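Question: Hello, beginner here. Any chance you could explain the protein record under this note? Any guidance would be welcome.
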Amino acid sequence: MLGLPDAATACLFDMDGVLTRTATVHAAAWKQMFDEFLRDRDGASFTPFDPEGDYDEYVDGKRREDGTRSFLQSRGIDLPEGSPDDPPGAPTITGLSERKNELVLEKIRQDGVELYDGSIRYVRAAREAGLRTAVVSSSANTAQVLDSSGIADLFEARVDGVTAKERDLAGKPAPDMFLAGAAALGVPAGQAVVFEDALAGVEAGRAGHFAFVVGVDRVGQAEALKRHGADLVVKDLEELL
C-alpha cells in the first residue's frame, strides 16, 4: 500500500524538503549567518559557507544549535554556548543560532511557503488509506509554517524543535524525535515509516529501527541517503502513489 510494508500503520514526515520547499530557505539563512560571522572573524581571507556541501553535511535536519556547533567544529572554531539572553548574532552558539532563525522568519514573511504538491497528495492518500500521520521536524518554526501553508490539519501530531527543547530530546541523527512522533500516534517504531530528505534524518530512522525509511532526494544525493539508512529513495513522494 502506497509503496510501504504491510506492517506500516503510521507515517512520520520531516517538513523542510519533504513537505515544504523551505530547505532552500534554511540553507540561504545558514549561509548568510555563517558568512557574516566568518567575514567579521577572518576578514577578506574567510572561506564562505557552502549552501550545498556544508549544509548537507553539518546542519541539514539537525536542531539549530546542533547545526551551528557542528559546522563551527568543522572549521576548528570553538565558541561558548551562551545563554537565552544573547542577542541574535552574538559570537556564541545561542547567538548565532538565533540570528539564523531571525533570517529564516524574515525570508518566510517576505516570500511565503511553497509546498511540494506531490508530497501533499501522498499525505492525503495515506490518511484516506487509514494511516496515522505526524510531522517530525527539527525546526522550531514548524507550527507557523504548517499553519501559514494550510496543511496543519493533515497531521495528528507534531514533534518539532520546540518539543525537543521542552522535553530535552536529542536531535537527529539520534532517533529520539521520531520515536516521540510514533509514541504521540500510539504506534510502535516497528509500525511507523520515516520520510526524510536529510542525511541526519535517514540516520535517525535507521537508528530507531522503524518499519521503513524513505529518503527524498531533492538535491542529487540518492546514494548518500541510501548509505545513511534509507531503504528506498524517491525524488518525490508522488512516485509512491
Observations:
- The two ends are 9 Å apart (CA to CA).
